[in-house]
Each structure stands twice: as structure tokens, then as C-alpha cells.
Amino acid sequence: MAQTPLKFGNTVLRDGHQSLAATRMTTAQMLPALEDLDALGFSCLETWGGATIDAGLRFLKEFPFDRLDALRKGTPKTPHMMLLRGQNIVQYSNFPDDVVEAFVACAARHGMDIFRIFDALNDLRNIETAVRAAKHAGKHAQGVLCYTSSPFHTVEKFIELGVEIERMGCDSICIKDMAGLIPPYKAALMVRGIKQRVKIPVVLHTHETAGLGAPTYYAGIEAGVDEIDVSISPFANGTGQPDTVRMLALLEDHPRCPQFDRARLARLGEHFAGVYRELHAFTNPANERVDTEALAFQVPGGMLSNFRNQLKEQRMEDRFDDVFREIPYVRQCLGWIPLVTPTSQIVGVQAILNVKFGRWKNFSPQATDLALGLYGRTPAPVDPEVRAIAARKSGKDPVECRPADLLKPRMADLRKELTAKGLPADDEHCVIYAMFPRELEDYLTAKQRAGETPPADDNGREANPAPRAAAPSPAVAQPAPGGREAPRSPGAVFQPDVPRRFAITVDGQRHEVTLEDID
Fold first, then answer.
1. Per the CB 3.0–4.6 Å rule, which of 50, 217, 340, 369 could disulfide with 83?
2. How far apart are CA 331 and CA 327, in angstroms?
3. Within 13 Å, how many C-alpha atoms sit on residue 36's CB side?
4. For residue 305, what pLDDT is reported?
5. Range in 2-16, 51-65, 232-246, 297-311 with the lowest mean pLDDT
6. Which residue blocks in 183-250 are alpha helix, DSSP H?
């Protein structure tokens, strides 16, 4: 019996540059590649979501839906996929159901086909709304199980999670190995076990961070996985996904090997090599090589790329090893959580604070909320002493309900706020404003001053809107959010007897914490 051909999804326009160039590829740098990408026959192109919306607005000065429109127009034949953080959407905290629903509906209207929906804690309550919204829009809802290793994460538990994802009504399942941790044999067990229990397709996503990516893919393919994610070098391998050409070579003469036009792939490789050179300020040779220490740190590729840059900005590059050794400890105390946005950033920030000031001397607000259940149910119980510190410092009580149940609808208020500011208040602007209010306001204000964005009409819509084209953005280093850098002088900032504000930026997200002695 002939075997079903394997499908390749391509990540170069999202995860590829997020993992290897701090998410700084501009829409203008993508446009010349679209014709070849569309013609090759990839099962999907990952074009949106993850950190691209944040970084595009914050650093590249691009309105997120403009990028989606431009990429959709340039690749009409290939389905588009985005990475959606469930109730977090593409931010770092939970949003009300009406905002999540509006965001999904907007993305669907602008051409998004596949919504890869995950929750950082694998708390499926946090993806229910997004899955329902994608299905309501007539789109493909792909439920995700985030892989990690710990005493509380077994193959059987992951298989059961896959069964629950199908039961929710998802159209496919993604095994998301964001840090490149799955050994080949375990990947085969997971794929085979899930395939035996569900009828929907199974996708395997991994990274080459620790050198396991390609062999893990091969094991998954042999076990019957339906699809894998690949990228295009030099935005591939290392902390990114395995390269397309590399995987084709690995599968040469394999009965499931897909067929691709090698000339087009070579042309794409040349184009992206040029883009990679243009983004040299955001690339790091350390992210291009195999790093087996990732097996201990369990840090995702996208965060590893950004985190090195951020430690350098904080003048803590000499504490890199100390900070990364602290990450597994923080992760264990917070309930053996998987490390994927936003938990990877939360744990990373707390690890910095622990190294700089002593363990739990200073507690970031995000880590506090995570310890108290405000992000969802952790895989294992949070360390009781750590939870007690979080409760004492914050004055909050732990919660057991779905966190979004505590949130009031916001769309009407968002529309009023934007209208009062004289800014467009359609759903597209409302959902972006909900997540990135300062960044969107700065962007729109600058556009208005330049005469490029009409004022809003009485209904909060753009008056006489014209189709927007993605403008070329310079691939140059940008200042920290708001044009400010985090304080760098320890003597001027870190006085243990005086509460002070301290800012840490990780993966493009600014975290502000109060420093004080809690002994």
C-alpha cells in the first residue's frame, strides 16, 4: 500500500526570523520571496502571530493587518497559518473573551486560514474561546500540546492531551516542541500513540537548538506524523526549524518524501541570505550552532535569540550562565511549567531577578500572577512557600477558575477610548490597542502627523479609508519601547532599603517590577 506523502509547512516568514533574528524581518524584505514560496506547494506558510505582531508594530512601525494583507495578496494559493497564544492572543496576559473573538474574526477576514492555538500551561480551558471563534469563522483550528520534560510530563499524559484536543472540536493537533527537546524515540511514541487514539491530522513542530530536530522529525515521520514544519536557511537550523533542503536530503528515496522545485528553493536561499546579512545587528552566531545545554535550560529558540540580546542590554552578559542555570529552578517552583511565550519570558525575568538580588527577594508581577493561578492551572502544584510569598507581596488570593472568567468584556470600552482620542476604532484597531495601546497610539499619531492616516469618523472608523500598502521598513536597530532603555547603573538603581522601579525587556516585552527588601 502506498504511503501518504508527508506535508511540509514553512515557517521562514514567522518562526524562522523570530528564532534567528529577533523577529526583525520587515514586510518589504519578505515580498520578493512570495512568488516562489507560493509556487512550491507547502501545506501552509506561517506568516503571522507569535512575536511578529508585537515586533512589527513596536520596532518596524508596521500595522499588523497591513502585513497580513500584503502577504496574503502575494501568496494566493497557499494557506496561511498563525500562532495564537489562546486567551493571551499575541500578548503576555489574558484578555476577555470578546477581545479574543474579535481578534480571530479580524484575522480570518484578512485571510488567515489556520489558527495554531496553544496555552503555555497546556490548560485547555485557555484555548476554548479561540478554538470556538476560529470554527465560527469557518477556519481551521489547530490545537496544540506544548512539549516539555519533567517528572509530571509523561508520554501517556501528552497522548491524553491530544485526545482532549480532538474532543474540543479541533481540526488537527500540533505537537509543539518549542525548545527542541523531544528525543527521536519519545517523539515516535507520542506520534504513534496520538495517531492510534485520534482521527484528525497530527503535526510535529521542533527546533534544532540542541541538535535533535532533524532526527526527531525522521522518527516522527516513520511513526506516521502527517506534517512537519521546516524553514529556509539561513533562517533555519540552530534555534530555528530544520532547513527544507536538509530535510529533503534526509528523506531522499523515502516513500513519503515530498517533491519540491530545487531551483526555486535555491533562489529563496539566496534571497534570504541577503536578508540575513541586512539583519546582522539582530543575529548571533551562538543561535546558529547546536547547544546541548538547551536540554537543561529548556528555553525556546525565539527566546534564546532575544534573551542574549537583552542580557547584553542589561549589562549582564557575564551572568548569562548564572541566569540560565536559575531558569530550571524557577520553572520547578512555578509548577514545572512548559517554557513558551509567555511563561518563558516570565521565568526568564524572574531568573534575572533571582540572580541579581537573591531568590524571591523581588517577585515580578507576572510571576506573581502565575504562582497564584491567574494564568491558569500549572502542570504541578506551585511550591507552597513561593505561592505564599506571591500572595503576601501582592495581596491577591489564589484562583482555581478559568482566569478569563474574571475578566469583563472590553470591546465597547476600547472603541470608546480610541474614538475619544480621534483614532480609528474599527475592530482591527481595537484588538491591537487592547494588547499594545502605547505602541499603536504612537504609530497612529505619527501617521496622522505625516498626513498618512485620516482621522476617525463619528463611528470610530477611518474616514474615507484607502487600501494600505506595507511600507518598506529599514532593517536597523531600534530603541527600547518608548525610546527608553532600562536603567544600567547598579549603584544608581539597586538600593535594597528603598523601593525602586526596575525595567527588564525580554523578547520585546517590557516588564516593570518594584525592588524592595522582603525579609
1. 50
2. 6
3. 20
4. 59
5. 297-311
6. 184-197, 213-222, 244-250
Q: Are 287 and 304 in contact (CB under 8 A)?
A: yes
Q: How many CB atoms lie within 10 A of CB 121?
A: 23
Instruction: Check whether 218 has a pLDDT greater than 60.
Output: yes
Q: pLDDT at position 311, please?
A: 79
pLDDT at 300: 65
82: β partners: 48, 115
- Cell reading at 150: 519533567
Q: Does the structure show a pLDDT above 80 at 424?
A: yes
* pLDDT band at 202; cut points 50, 70, 90: very high
Residues in the chain: 519
H or E element in which residue 229 lies? strand 227-230
Question: What CA–CA distance (Å, rounded) separates 42 from 10?
Answer: 6
CB 291 within 8 A of CB 196: no
364 and 334 in contact (C-beta within 8 Å)?
no
Quote the cell numbers at residue 206.
521542533
Model's pTM, two decimal places? 0.86
247 and 11 Cβ atoms separated by less than 8 Å: no
